[in-house]
Amino acid sequence: MELTIGPNQFFWPAETWSSFYDDLTHAPVDRIVLGELVCSKRLPFYQDRIPDAVSALIEAGKDVALTSLALVTLKRERKLTAALAEMGVTVEINDLTALAYIPEGQTFYVGPLVNVYNEGTLRWLASRGARRVCLPPELPLASVAALAKAASDLGVAVEVWGHGRLPLAISGRCYHARMHGRSKDNCQFACEDDPDGLDVMTRDGKPFMAMNGVQTLSDSYACTDHQIELLRAAGVSSLRLSPQSQGFIPLCDLYRQRIDQSLAESDLAQQIRTLNPDIRLSDGFLTGSCGADWSGPQDRGTPNR
Amino acid sequence: MVMEIVCPAGTPAALRAAVKAGAHTVYCGFNDETNARNFPGLNFDRAEMRTGVDFAHQHGAKVLVAINTFPRAGDEAIWHRAIHDAEACGADAVILADPGLLDHAARHHPGLRRHLSVQAAAANADVINFYAETFGVKRVVLPRVLSVPEIAAINAETEVETEVFVFGGLCVMAEGRCSLSSYATGLSPNMNGVCSPASHVDYSEHQGVLDARLGGYLIHRVDKDEPAPYPTLCKGCFSAGEKTGHLFEDPVSLNAERLIPQLQKSGVTALKIEGRQRSKSYVAQVVRNFRTAVDALDAGRPLPEGMLARLSEGQAMTTGAYKKTWR
Amino acid sequence: MSDPQNQLPHCPAALAAALRVMPLAPLSLSLTAFSRRIARNHPALFQRLGAYGRTEFVLDPVDLPIVVCLNPNDGRPRIKLTRRKAQGAARISGPLAALIGLVHGAFDGDALFFSRDLVIEGDTGAALALRNAIDDAELDLAQEAETLSGPLARPVHHLIAIAEHQTGLCLTRPEDATIW
Question: Which of B232, B279, B312 to mutate to test the interface with C (most CBs of C within 10 A)?
């Protein structure tokens, strides 16, 4: 089983961004998708660093793809998205808009924010040139298995959201800006204050979601410790780890060990908690009754449900 | 040309009420998970759909059938059957969101008109034209994240008809791209056709203070004299950093009736009213109001003043993303 | 349509007084017979309840000294009136006028709920299903009652007679033209 690093969902200073991808050249991962997923206003701050990062990663033997934006509305965003198809690097589409610019026959990847829920959509995407699909995080294991089976007949690799705060929604409205009483156009990049998103609690103090500009994430970090064998058996060929600002390289090491069976089930989750004692984990979309469920033992960081 | 009023109907009675109140077009769904308002007690069985379409046609109105959830892997036949049956019932169009389903409909039901559901969140002219070229889509329901100038820009670049929401519930997230509901309850708009489902709602009142929870999460707490909000996740009251409040959206509902002239100038073909889950009394009242407005506009008369505030959630209104400051 | 939130009529005191002393067992029997007649004439109403076809509903007219326990019982409904506290899976409370107006489609259930004229407790999904099913059925309680005959008819007619002497209660279906 492979490890894919998804695009960073948050807004980090350019220096942090660069050193993150420098570090990944040495990490035990197979594939890196990078670029701006959430907000086109962030891109100018690190855009000129992308070519170097891509070259370094390719040189280190990694498969590299560039993500499209998750929601394309403005003219500027359409131009950016059209330009992606001409970069000479595989494109991961996270809004079908990107597909409008990819010539028929050019292969591409499909990210978790494109709604691939069934075989018909998978077949259609494969016919357009899709070679790899990271399934939407909300899919239950039964759907993952059915899609992985169909995908293998189509020569499409299937990936599942393996670790990280779950991307639950995308909006035209920027919540960070709204919270600071600013408009989106004058946001002053409030989201930069929260390199892993800003915790959103219910009024009785239960952690629930995380705010990241126009994106809403889960409070909990998805973790597939208890499903790795099931996913492998279903034909899933890669797990996607979503970048976080702290301890990410050790996290990649832990998942690598878990996949290579040098780390036992439950030990992965326990080690993740050692790295970050306050983390709340979930795996409910795959095997629980709702996304926030966690099939491992509760922990002091886990809210009572 | 008079702008087309597209009205919701959750039941056959609501369909008749909407048609009698002046709806040009009614949209509805089958009573299963194929449509995005799969609520208990709502929607149409096959016989009711056929009768409903006949009734509408006799009164000069059209019927659109929403099959706008994303088919479950392994069970696509249920959705394929829905498209087949919609055509057999005489529906004027189907409203679809899933690319695989659009592809199926284009191949197997080429004579059935296809509209792109708001659940597809097609938010720019390029992707709309792509849907038109690839699947022969004739109309797109625009996501509720666009401003009026952006809608005008889209219309300038596409031949595809546009339909926009003007009244009712307001999704603050891009539709079809949101799994907040399944994160908290296991049931989502995309997979199950429900958002913040009633089956997971719990109200408890203590000394006049009303708590509304969804999936165990406290979404609203209101005092005795405040309106009771439904615990829709994205409209809840939460805390982040130092702030407590409606961080995503206030418990308001959309009312763009005053923007109708601008929407017409922007090239919009049809005005859509949300609310298949609302009563026939609501539907009739809203339809009548909007029909009067577009007829007045067409005749060059001033628009009547709005009378719809009380029908809305929390009894407050917004023009939503149509005004750019909303963002 | 009138403006229900500002002018929900109060239930006539005479009706409340009558219900304080009337024996409830015969009235329950009569209402059960009445509801079965409705079930016969409107089978779609009970089909619409789907999974909630055997749910115990408690309807609580807050201006009356009784509550109504309704079990749809998959199309063979049972109604029981009680002056005590009643348990059910879903409870809908509000002024009698709101509850009956809802049945007749004169008022919008959601609007009454947002304004807290109606209060829902317990299984919200069940309450919603009942609301939606009734909204589709286009019932006219007075007209249904008129066709009721035999000994069980008398208590129902008696109730209607008391109510009809008062003004304000929405006992018959408003004609389409006056709804809006």
Answer: B279
**A2-167+216-287 — its CATH code?**
3.20.20.70
SS3 B281: helix
Residue-wise pLDDT tens digits, B260-295? 999 999 999 999 999 888 888 889 989 999 999 999
HSE, side-chain direction, 13 A CA sphere, residue C122: 16
- Whole-number average pLDDT of chain C: 79
CATH number for the domain that contains residue C39: 3.30.1050.10
Q: C57-61 and B62-67 as β-strands: parallel, antiparallel, unpaired?
A: unpaired
A120-138 pLDDT, tens digit per residue, is: 999 999 999 999 999 999 9
Residue B254 pLDDT level (bands cut at 50, 70, 90): confident
DSSP characters over B32-66: STTSS---TT-SB-HHHHHHHHHHHHHTT-EEEEE
Interface test mutation site (partner A, options B116, B179, B185, B190, max chain A beta carbons within 10 A): B179
Q: Is the pLDDT of residue B308 over 70?
A: no
Domain hosting C161: range is: 13-167
Task: Give the tokens for residue C44.
Answer: 């779609």
* Within-domain flag for C6: no
Q: Which residues numbered 83-122 in B keep a CB inside 8 Å of some CB on A?
A: 97-101, 103-104, 120-122
Q: What is the mean pLDDT of chain A?
A: 95
Residue type at position B65: V
Q: Is the dihedral of CA C16, C21, C24, C30 positive or negative?
A: negative
Given a contact cutoff of 8 angstroms between Cβ atoms, the answer to whether A28 and A253 are in contact is yes
Residue B181 contacts residue B195 (beta carbons within 8 Å): yes
Measured between CB atoms, does B310 come within 8 Å of chain C? yes
Fold type of domain B4-170+252-326: TIM Barrel (3.20.20)
Q: How far apart are CA B175 and CA B235, in angstroms?
A: 15
The DSSP call for residue B30 is: B
Residue where the block lists tokens 């057999």: B88
Q: What is the structure's pLDDT at C21?
A: 84
| H-run or E-run covering B4 | strand B4-8
Domain with CATH 3.20.20.70 in chain B: 4-170+252-326
Q: Is C177 within a domain?
A: no
Coarse DSSP helix, strand, coil percentages of chain A, rounded to the nearest 5 percent: 35, 20, 40
**pLDDT greater at residue B169 or residue B46:** B46
Contact residues for A158 (Cβ-Cβ < 8 A; gap 6+):
A132, A133, A135, A144, A147, A148, A151, A152, A235, A236, A237, A238
Could you state, in order of their start, the residue ranges of all structural domains in chain A? 2-167+216-287
The ipTM value here is 0.95
Q: List all residues 6 or more positions away from C179 whose beta carbon is below 8 Å from its beta carbon.
A: B17, B281, B284, B285, C1, C105, C106
* C173 within domain boundaries: no
Q: What is the pLDDT of residues C10-45, one digit of tens each?
A: 666 777 887 888 888 888 988 898 899 889 989 888
In a domain, C176, yes or no: no
**DSSP3 helix / strand / coil % (chain B, rounded to 5):** 40, 20, 40
CA dihedral C69, C71, C75, C78 (to 10 degrees): -50
- Specify the pTM: 0.91
Confidence grade of residue B171 (pLDDT, cut at 50, 70, 90): confident
Q: Do C116 and B312 touch (CB under 8 A)?
A: no
**Rounded to an integer, what distance in angstroms lies between the CA atom of residue A68 and that of residue A50?**
14
pLDDT over 70 for what percent of chain C? 76
Residues of B in contact with C44 (CB under 8 A): 48
Residues 6+ apart with CB under 8 A from B152: B265, B266, B267
